[in-house]
Amino acid sequence: MFGDLFEEDYSSVSNDHYGKGKKLKTKALEPPAPREFTNLSGIRNQGGTCYLNSLLQTLHFTPEFREALFSLGPEELGSLEDKDKPDAKVRIIPLQLQRLFAQLLLLDQEAASTTDLTDSFGWTSDEEMRQHDVQELNRILFSALETSLVGTSGHDLINRLYHGTIVNQIVCKECKNVSEKQEDFLDLTVAVRNVSGLEDALWNMYVEEEVFDYDNLYHCGTCDRLVKAAKSAKLRKLPPFLTFSLLRFNFDFVKCERYKETSCYTFPLRINLKPFCEQSELDDLEYMYDLFSVIIHKGGCYGGHYHVYIKDVDHLGNWQFQEDKSNPDVNLEDLQNEEIDDPLMILKAVLLQEESNLIPVDQLGQKLLKKIGISWNKKYRKQYGPLRKFLQLHSQIFLLSSDESTVSLLKDCSLQTESDIRRNDQQLLKTLTSEPPGLNDRPSCPHWFDVNDSQVQPIKEEDIEQQFQGKESAYMLFYRKSQLQRPPEARANPRYRVPCHLLNEMDAANIELQIKRAECDSTNNNFELHLHLGPYYHFFNGALHPVVSQTESMWDLTFDKRKTLGDLRQSIFQLLEFWEGDMVLSVAKFVPAGLHVYQTLDGDHLTLCEIEIADGEDIFVWNGVEVGGIQIPAGSDCEPLLLNVLHPATSSEEEQCQQLIDSPYVFPSNAEIGSVFTACAIPDGVILVNSAESVGEESWTTIPKEDLKKTFREQGLRNGSSILIQDSNDGNSLLTKRGKWITSVNEVDWLQVKNLCQLDSEEEQVKISATLNTVVFDIRIKAIKELKLMKELAEDSCLRPIDRDGKLLCPVPDNYTLKEAELKMGSSLGLCPGKAPTSSQLFLFFAVGSDVQPGMEMEIIVEETISVRDCLKVMLEKSGLSGDAWHLRKMDWCYEAGEALWEEDAALKELMLSSGDTLLLIEGKLPPLGFLKVPIWWYQPRGTLHHWKSHQDQTNCTFSQGGVWRANSIQDAPSDAHAEVSLRYLGDVEISEDATLGELKSQVSLPPAARTLLVIWLLPAMTLPSFSEFSIPSPAFLRAWTVESRRPGRLLRVHYQRLREYKLGQRTEICLEPLQKEENLGPQHVLLRTQMRLPGKRAYALPVDLVWDTARGWTAGSLRHRVADFYSLPVEKIEIAKYLPEKFEWLPVPSWNQQITKRKKKKKQDNLQGAPYHLKDGDTIGIKNLLVEDDDDFSTVRDDIGREKQKAFALGRKKRKPFVCGAATSPLLQRCLPAPVDQKLLSPSTSGASDSTGPTLLLQVLARFLVSARCGHGLRALLCHEQRGRSIAGQASALVTRSVARPPRLARTWPHHRCQPADTLAPTLEPRHHLYTKID
């Protein structure tokens, strides 16, 4: 509405300059600040809306306008909730004004927002950034309100409050005929130029007459000729509120430019309009108007800023100047003894120090004790009685509340007028009781405020005179009739006449703001501490090390840094209920040697900020003396240093050899350097020191014998420094006799360049001397000359770094220096044909499929501005592929297919691709934007009590084939249902992110002909035929899980929730589980698999699903009661435990209500969501009936076998050595063998005879090995043909594909191998193979 009216002033300006559409509203990180001491709310500036804010504040502080707007209810204006309904009649502008006024009155925030109001105006972001004229806005806003209120009881709101009339008269001098013309006005425009003030301008307009004579005669209709006449204007009708617009801006016709009048222009605080009115017979009070708002413009005619001076008619704000906000403290210590004996004076002095002179009676006694050092009962009770009785007896001075809980001073009370105050104390009492200016609330002292957007400050009435002239001067004046009186109940009552629905909305918003501020305050003042528990550490090799693992020995604690050290100690005591004895907290830090304790924290009364505890600080919790029976050195003086000690090796005959042994040693920094001999068991010798940063033989320094008693710190040694021990009788240095040290102690100043141009050359590689500032072009030219190659290569060759695996990296631009190219001295470079890419080009590697083998990548140089679609076409053309069913993905850090390049029209530069990146050509088109490609699995828990009996045999048979994942099982172990997890792959679906979970279930479970294509698209090759094997009554009989680590992970609960809200991501997989009955789990429900232990057997019955309502908490007691109720057993006769399948262990859940702490005698508060249980959906809970079996063992035979296998595997990993064919003998691989196999069959044949037994069995073992190790998650196996160098990884992958049965990221990328049997590979393999493994 407003945007169209203002647009004509900017018709020549393109809207594109400002932007189109709605402004992006950013979510505030912190809640808005509360109101300041004035208790009034400002309005936030949206960029150029200061003029709007000033006018809105004026209307807000016009109580009659505000209350008239509040009187219009939802039955007339409608509701904002219905504004999007097509048939609803909603008057948005009045509703938004109501809401804004309610926020300004009641919402506890420093500044309100006008975003919703300007949206109702139809403004866009460019309108909110432009500054307009406030006088023009006043007329437009009133017009918009009148239009919006048509048909309501407030249709005459603007007319009733602001409408007035002017009568223009022309009187004929001859016949005295009067010609009249009446004009309506909502505001009066008055001149400023050549006028001294408002009254002078009104006199010129409405008192002085304009005479028509001489050459300017008037034609009288009555006389029917030109006659002399007089023209005048009068105010006929005065509105309750009168607005004056000052014509500050004029046009200079000489200079042809606009300018602003800054001359002095006075206006009164109260004005009598009787001389300017047509009717003057009424009483003078009828014509008296009081100034209550002045809109001020600061700046020039082409820009500036608006703010407003406003009179608080209802005294809603705290008119108190900031310098007087708090009364000065009264120094009661200077009072004489006779003055302290007077309780009346003391109590008054205490109350006068309170901000509002109001205080609870209990706190009054405490403050009295604090001021005079003695309590009321000891000092005054015997003579004056109890404190409350004393206050009641002096009701002329003190005002007690109705419940006698609080007390305050009467406002008209002054200590100077009390008869019980002696005259010699009057001067002191003036000091104690002097009120700051502004606290007086008398009507004769008006409350004025300067409202400047978000800021509201109190001002004095005389400050208005400063706005008479200058660049910052009055621009609009608002007066109200003096006879308008406000009701007493409206005084200082912001809730007066506010509708109930707005009161409720503001109360709820204030509660929400309080919660957000508390959360924000907690977030800003909380920090993380890492607690290292002494009992979980042991002292070894000069530092502290965890006994088990870092995870179990370190606890993370979030704590408020404003609390004291004593509070932290008490919290740790409550957290560690097993702790006994003293607790000492010390600051610790990780050093290369381990964890070292520095300073001990003292001063329980100090806050954590005061003792300078930082976020993420490591705190060591111990007894302050020893750990594990060993006394711990603490402090920075004894910080452990990890040093590299080189000393001669000792032969079996205890003779020193010429070979050096490099061993790490840890020494305290305050230990003597001579202690190195003792640590290395060397009787004597010479010590040479080399710092960690030094390079070169000359940096080795010999330590004189007299300095051997110096400490390591005094000698300047740090972590990583090297020490060499040499025999004192050996005159030759051992450094030059050790091959590998020759290159490390002499600076390398050359690069090695290899000839990779496939041209004949006398040399295959040469060394080129260089420095870090040498340009790559010079090195390339020198290499061509020394290799004696053709000069033509100078124009068509480049240098490419070679990594340690022999792979050629991205070419280096010729204009780079070695430092800019990040090339180290001694690096190997390859001289290759072809030019290096320019600064606007990208050098990319790409490969087909996700199974990228070393050396299989292809290379391409493209412009960085090329689109993804064009780059894909170039790559397909170079790789000899056709079709449009391909897409590009980045290769992630573990050399697997990573993030897809979704935006096909985006340039490579926009996607932050750089030279050297690897892209993968993956078959299959990406789903459309807003759609997810979700693999669907069928999940049938083994042995779960469901009613799908008719399909059990078929399911077991089918699941044993390819296309299934199953957890590792131990042969000949008892059958436990919790050990088996079967997932059958059904296919991939493409589904909209806006579809609900229920729609996904219903569409997938329906027959293909009944699926809704508008909601879900199936891939062409996928029709999900497997669902035809199951008869599912409805989607409510399906339970959906995400797939994590080849097991069901997160349970997807709410049927009507959109998939977008689950934040599934592009790689999420979903498995569906059939149910016996319909299920609708809420957010407080937890699904657990429960198994009852069979009496007398180390085995469990079939699992049964149990739904646990955690609304009353995640406590062990609540879970025990639920389980006992489910199995109809007494709660005290059961024991439960959580199964940890990855450890083959059961973690008992004890009865916490029986555990009492020794220190505080309080019940321990447990939470099964936290450590060590981390209970979640799908966890297995074992139950033991103590009525038939009373022991502590929850484990099964399978658990024993699994733990033994884990121990054997861990032991085998420790003993494993580097191998060529050693992977075939690893424990993990041996575990996959069907029976013990001769190791010779697994090793490469050395005879050269064609024997296929070994390789065939080796491939079978490889397949089992990859299935067990989950090849899609970091373990890769490569089979390399040794004789011809021909890779047979593709054939091996086919076998792996059949065995692994399409794991998520590996097998599905090899569709052409999917149907090839494993046995068909054996004849194609030749006898000599090496098996290499790489474990990430």
UniProtKB/TrEMBL annotation:
Catalytic activity annotation: Thiol-dependent hydrolysis of ester, thioester, amide, peptide and isopeptide bonds formed by the C-terminal Gly of ubiquitin (a 76-residue protein attached to proteins as an intracellular targeting signal)
> What is the top-level taxon of the source organism?
Eukaryota
Q: Does the keyword Protease apply?
A: yes
Enumerate the UniProt keywords alphabetically.
Hydrolase, Protease, Thiol protease, Ubl conjugation pathway
Task: Name the InterPro entries for this protein.
Answer: Papain-like_cys_pep_sf, Peptidase_C19, Peptidase_C19_UCH, UBL_USP40, USP, USP_CS
Pfam family membership, one: UBL_USP40
Coiled-coil zones: none
Query: Which GO MF terms does the UniProt record name?
Result: cysteine-type deubiquitinase activity
Cellular component (GO) terms are:
cytosol; nucleus
EC number per UniProt? 3.4.19.12
**GO biological process: one example:** proteolysis
User: Do the record's keywords include Hydrolase?
Assistant: yes
**Family, as annotated:** Belongs to the peptidase C19 family.
Q: What is the name attached to this protein's record?
A: Ubiquitin carboxyl-terminal hydrolase 40
Organism lineage: Eukaryota, Metazoa, Chordata, Craniata, Vertebrata
